[in-house]
Inverse folding.
């Protein structure tokens, strides 16, 4: 399900299936997208931040069009205890790989992978970041 | 550190195309006259081959290389190097003067980060600015690349860097700020490209920066962000457009203007070293 901002409109609440993973997309070329994500974060229930939220930064292939500091996004990930993924949607290979990665994460968050929970996965990712 | 205003006057108010240059190998300051001769011969030879694009009047190109001792940041920087191409039409009277047609200068202002890390025999002048026909820039560039094994790359200036520039320059103390602070945005993904020009009275911009900056002489990313956010919020209040979602392509102040394609104009002699220092930093990070 795609949305441009949160909160989601309440009219369709009863029809909506369970949400397993929230991916916040930030376009590195647009400061506005970062502000939008920051305001939307306030509408997410705290329980999601136990591994069911991730930040996806797009447009990283274009260093010259950069309008957001990478540090700012990494700090956001740290504050909300959620992983930050970087990708370039204009490159087909990276796009496919990122999509596959997100689907794997989604599978874990939905509880489909035995032995791995969303929380244990996210702490695994954080550990490798520190390394 | 204070540049002689007479000598550097020609640097002001010209649109310079900016490049980053990797260190020059085997450059000897004592051989400037030789280099000028060799470069002149190279240009003449290329013209013979029909590669230079001067159609019509037959023009002889004269090359002059000189050092601009005043243009440097510290003693660790190399003095700037100026290359000037002048034309004298053939068959004209002996009294005809050479007319300058192209300027290019290499410089380094507080480029210690780079000069400290290169081995012997390399000269660091990471910033190159040119003004004049692109064909001459290509000729001079290829001669330098062949002779000193260096590499030129157009300097790209990101919206992030442009924001720094406009915040820094709008906040500079001036006796008389004559031009507005202008930001030009291009709006992506439209059927017809749209440019938005946002002009602010220079005193208002300076007043805003003064409320944001905490320590005089120091600028942080947070302060630049707050400054830009105020400008964006003000614009949104009036026009309901989120400038933060558009691409900042050009900034212009009384001190200098810069375009994301790497085109810079320096307008105020007092702040010439400051602007060059910033550009040197960008050039060095593009090289590394």
């Amino acid at each position: 399900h795609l949305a441009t901002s949160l909160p989601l409109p309440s009219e369709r609440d009863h029809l909506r299936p369970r949400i397993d993973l929230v991916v916040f997309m930030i376009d590195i070329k647009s400061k506005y997208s970062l502000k939008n994500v920051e305001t939307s974060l306030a509408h997410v229930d705290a329980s999601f931040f136990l591994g069911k939220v991730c930040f996806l930064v797009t447009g990283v292939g274009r260093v010259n069009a950069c309008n957001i500091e990478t540090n700012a996004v990494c700090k956001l990930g740290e504050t909300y205890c959620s992983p930050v993924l970087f990708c370039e949607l204009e490159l087909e290979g990276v796009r496919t790989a990122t999509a596959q990665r997100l689907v794997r994460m989604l599978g874990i968050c939905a509880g489909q992978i035995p032995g791995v929970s969303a929380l244990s996965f996210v702490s695994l990712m954080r550990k490798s970041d520190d390394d | 550190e204070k540049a002689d205003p007479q000598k550097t006057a020609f640097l002001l108010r010209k649109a310079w195309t900016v490049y980053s240059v990797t260190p020059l190998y085997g450059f000897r300051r004592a051989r400037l006259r030789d280099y000028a001769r060799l470069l002149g011969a190279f240009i003449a030879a290329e013209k013979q081959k029909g590669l230079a694009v001067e159609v019509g009047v037959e023009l002889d190109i004269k090359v002059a290389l000189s050092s601009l001792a005043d243009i440097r940041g510290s003693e660790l920087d190399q003095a700037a190097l100026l290359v000037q191409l002048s034309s004298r039409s053939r068959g004209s009277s002996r009294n005809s003067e050479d007319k300058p047609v192209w300027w290019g200068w290499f410089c380094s202002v507080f480029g210690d980060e780079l000069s400290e890390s290169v081995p012997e025999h390399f000269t660091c002048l990471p910033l190159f600015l040119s003004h004049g026909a692109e064909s001459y820039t290509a000729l001079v560039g290829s001669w330098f690349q062949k002779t000193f094994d260096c590499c030129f790359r157009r300097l790209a200036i990101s919206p992030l860097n442009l924001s720094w520039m406009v915040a820094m320059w709008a906040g500079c103390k001036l006796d008389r700020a004559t031009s507005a602070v202008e930001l030009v945005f291009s709006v992506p993904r439209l059927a017809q490209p749209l440019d938005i020009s946002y002009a602010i009275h220079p005193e208002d911009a300076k007043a805003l920066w003064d409320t944001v900056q905490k320590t005089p002489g120091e600028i942080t990313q947070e302060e630049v962000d707050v400054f830009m956010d105020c400008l964006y919020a003000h614009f949104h209040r009036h026009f309901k457009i989120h400038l933060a979602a558009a691409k900042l392509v050009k900034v212009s102040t009384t001190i200098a203007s810069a375009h994301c394609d790497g085109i810079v104009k320096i307008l105020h002699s007092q702040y010439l070293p400051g602007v060059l220092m910033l550009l040197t930093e960008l050039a060095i990070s593009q090289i590394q």
